[in-house]
Write a structure and sequence with these properties.
Strand content: 25-35%
Shape: globular
Number of helices: 3
Distance between the termini: 91 Å
Structural class: alpha+beta
Oligomer: single chain
Order of helices and strands: EEEEEEEEEEEEEEEEEEEEEEEEHEHH
Helix content: 10-25%
Strand order of the largest sheet: 2-1-11-10-7-8
Length: about 325
């Protein structure tokens, strides 16, 4: 049995997606299993895990939040066939799927030797083990905010941990934050910055990446299997200890909840600062227009002050 996601957009158009893998990521970025391209969907919005008949959903620090049956998702919870997930302009309906009814999509297709079509980072540990991330021309951002190119959903990793910058000749790894608690570690050594070479290993908390240059062969199989095994073990443990409840149950603030709220606060703060910046620019522009139209504005202000002072002297 697999999981079928029926996606309805704001034009009431339906599309059906069948999955047989146990981890399904959803968002706007092209590295997701299910891509929702509208701008009100975060690059990495939420994920669904399936284990032993349980369906577990988790928001990944999205800007506009994830809703299940019109209730905002603030922690990892169990949901059921028939529940409705709302994300931006989309409603997503859950159905159980007989695998022979649709063409299943699976991460197992990644479990084979491959040739890098561009420079990539290969995750070798953590829950994303075996995943690959394209290193773009210009700038590639690594961090814990949902818009990062290499998205690491972890409370101890800064929103922008590091950047890979391409200057036309080399790919340079530089820190995103100047924080001694978050050093750059490449090949086991702390560095201020480094030009990346094939085979270099970058350690970021529990995550280990290998830099693969274009044209080289790599095999993600070992890391995919380890990540899947660890993810199932942790999920099964949380289910047995009842750390995961249904969307309708009250729950305490967890590490996941704290990370989601932290990410949203950063996004809200950035939004407010951007709005303030726009308002200041508009005010400055208006002032310049007035000065251009009324060259005597300073003289008019001085005349007004003189009148006020004169009126005070009469009193």
């Amino acid at each position: 049995m697999g999981l079928k996601l029926i996606v309805e957009n704001d034009r009431n158009e339906l599309s059906v997606h069948g999955f047989s893998n146990d981890l399904i990521t959803i968002g706007r970025a092209p590295d997701n299993d299910l891509i929702l391209p509208e701008r009100n969907v975060s690059r990495h919005h939420f994920q669904i895990e399936v284990l032993d008949g349980h369906i577990i959903i988790e928001d990944r620090g999205s800007f506009n939040a994830t809703y299940v049956n019109a209730k905002e998702l603030t922690r990892k919870v169990e949901i059921f066939v028939g529940d409705v997930i709302s994300v931006g302009d989309y409603n997503i309906y859950l159905e159980q799927d007989e695998e022979d009814e649709t063409t299943p999509q699976s991460r197992d297709t990644e479990a084979r030797p491959r040739t890098a079509e561009t420079e990539i980072l290969l995750a070798k540990s953590g829950p994303i083990g075996g995943r690959t991330f394209a290193v773009k021309g210009g700038e590639t951002v690594i961090g814990s905010y949902a818009g990062a190119d290499v998205y690491l959903f972890h409370p101890d990793i800064p929103p922008v941990y590091a950047k890979i910058i391409f200057d036309g000749n080399i790919y340079l790894l530089v820190p995103g934050v100047r924080d001694p608690r978050c050093p750059l570690i490449v090949n086991g050594m702390r560095v201020d910055s480094v030009d990346l070479r094939h085979g270099d290993e970058i350690q970021i908390g529990e995550f280990l990446f290998e830099y693969i240059e274009k044209g080289n062969i790599y095999d993600p199989t070992e890391y995919l299997l380890k990540a899947a095994e660890e993810r199932r073990r942790k999920l099964r443990e949380d289910l047995e200890k009842k750390h995961i409840k249904s969307i309708d149950d009250d729950g305490e603030v967890t590490e996941v909840t704290a990370q989601i709220e932290k990410t949203r606060q950063v996004n809200r703060r950035a939004g407010r600062l951007f709005l303030l910046f726009i308002l200041l620019l508009a005010a400055l522009f208006l002032l310049l227009v007035l000065l251009r139209l009324y060259g005597g504005l300073p003289e008019m202000l001085q005349s007004l002050m003189d009148r006020i002072l004169t009126a005070d002297s009469y009193e």
